[in-house]
């Protein structure tokens, strides 16, 4: 059961629901690492630890998920929960909400920002049962929804 089940969000999901470890393996292969041990060395983590995460023998938490998502150039929310942005809207490797899209930026679309922030707050509530996620996770959620908002606006104008 997904921790985001029942949340009304407009995004694409993979046709066949992949497990988190399967998404990790796909991300590694798509990033050009032919073996789990090659990826572990690039990530500077123990080979056994990474291999257990990829095989599904052990789950991995948000901090490891962020590290994997950045190295492999995939969306953090997709890696951890299976939600997927359209290819053109996916963030690049090492992207962070506060490194380029900040509220004091003159390029920000304020309507999209506030809509994304509201959606991130709702998701945070669902993920924690009313509590708060750490700041990095919240930033990733806002970035995820901000890019969705921009993609939706772009598709409407075409």
TrEMBL record:
Residues 24-79 form the HTH cro/C1-type domain. Transmembrane segments: none annotated. CDD domains: HTH_XRE. This is Helix-turn-helix domain-containing protein. It comes from the Bacteria. It comes from Roseibium sediminicola.
């Amino acid at each position: 059961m997904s921790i985001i089940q029942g949340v009304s969000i407009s995004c694409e999901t993979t046709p066949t629901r992949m497990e988190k470890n399967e998404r990790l393996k796909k991300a590694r292969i798509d990033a050009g690492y032919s073996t789990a041990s090659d990826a572990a060395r690039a990530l500077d983590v123990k080979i056994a630890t990474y291999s257990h995460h990829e095989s599904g023998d052990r789950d991995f938490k948000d901090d490891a998920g962020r590290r994997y998502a950045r190295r492999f150039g995939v969306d953090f929310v997709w890696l951890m929960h299976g939600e997927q942005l359209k290819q053109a809207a996916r963030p690049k490797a090492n992207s962070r909400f506060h490194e380029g899209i900040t509220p004091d930026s003159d390029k920000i679309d304020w309507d999209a920002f506030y809509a994304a922030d509201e959606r991130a707050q709702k998701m945070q509530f669902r993920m924690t049962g009313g509590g708060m996620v750490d700041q990095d996770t919240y930033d990733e959620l806002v970035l995820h929804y901000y890019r969705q908002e921009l993609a939706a606006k772009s598709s409407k104008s075409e």
